[in-house]
């Protein structure tokens, strides 16, 4: 019995299933190694940020999410950004640091914490804002100030009418 007759014994759906499984295994292995590489690269970048960070006082003028090309960042920053990410929106903060007005990029985690038209102490690595602390008092967390939906408001009103103690606001 030759090899070609052995392959002919498999039906078409079985061959398609085997090919699909082989392709899926190859894609899974490739994603595993890409993830490993990306994790290693991110750890190196975090170490570089930690070694270069410094605390400065700044007055935040404006903050927005905008495309890199429109943000007014230095050309060198735009050139070093991968082509696929140049069109994506980044959290941009315009701030007065000393006598200069600078355009900085904020970390996504802290972008919502940054108050506009207030002075803050920020931990900065190059043009990247890593952390923000308020100079006069603490910064308000925007998650705690979220408005309640209509259903939640109606439920609170019904609880108050039923004699429950009103919630602290």
The amount of helix comes to 25-40%
Overall average pLDDT: 85
- Biggest sheet, strands in spatial order? 1-2-3-5-4
**Derived structural class:** alpha+beta
Biggest sheet, open or closed, and with what strands and sense? 5 strands, mixed, barrel
Low-confidence stretches: none
Number of strands: 5
Written as H for each helix and E for each strand, in order along the chain, the element string is HHEHEEEEH
User: How many DSSP helices?
Assistant: 4
> Can you tell me the CATH class of the largest domain?
Mainly Beta
**Rg from Cα:** 27 Å
Shape: flat
Number of domains: 2
CATH architecture of the largest domain: Beta Barrel
Strand content: 25-35%
State the distance separating the first and last CA atoms. 83 Å
CATH fold name of the largest domain, please?
A: OB fold (Dihydrolipoamide Acetyltransferase, E2P)
Give a verbal description of the structure.
There is one protein chain. The chain has 169 residues and is α+β, with helices and mostly antiparallel strands. The chain has two domains: 9-48; 53-134, OB fold (Dihydrolipoamide Acetyltransferase, E2P) (Beta Barrel). Helices cover 38% and strands 26% of the residues. It has four helices and five strands. A hairpin with a 2-residue loop joins strand 4 and strand 5. The longest helix is centred in the N-terminal third of the chain and has 41 residues, at 12-52.
């Amino acid at each position: 019995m030759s090899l070609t007759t052995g392959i002919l014994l498999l039906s078409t759906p079985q061959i398609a299933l085997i090919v699909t499984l082989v392709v899926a295994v190859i894609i899974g292995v490739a994603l595993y190694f890409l993830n490993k590489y990306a994790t290693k690269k991110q750890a190196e970048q975090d170490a570089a940020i930690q070694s270069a960070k410094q605390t400065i006082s700044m007055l935040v003028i404006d903050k927005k999410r905008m495309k890199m090309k429109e943000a007014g960042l230095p050309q060198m920053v735009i050139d070093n950004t991968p082509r696929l990410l140049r069109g994506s929106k980044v959290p941009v903060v315009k701030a007065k640091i000393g006598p200069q007005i600078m355009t900085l990029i904020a970390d996504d985690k802290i972008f919502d914490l940054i108050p506009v038209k207030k002075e803050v102490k920020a931990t900065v690595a190059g043009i990247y804002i890593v952390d923000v602390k308020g100079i006069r008092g603490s910064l308000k967390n925007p998650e705690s100030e979220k408005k309640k939906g209509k259903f939640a408001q109606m439920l609170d009103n019904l609880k108050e009418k039923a004699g429950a103690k009103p919630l602290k606001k």
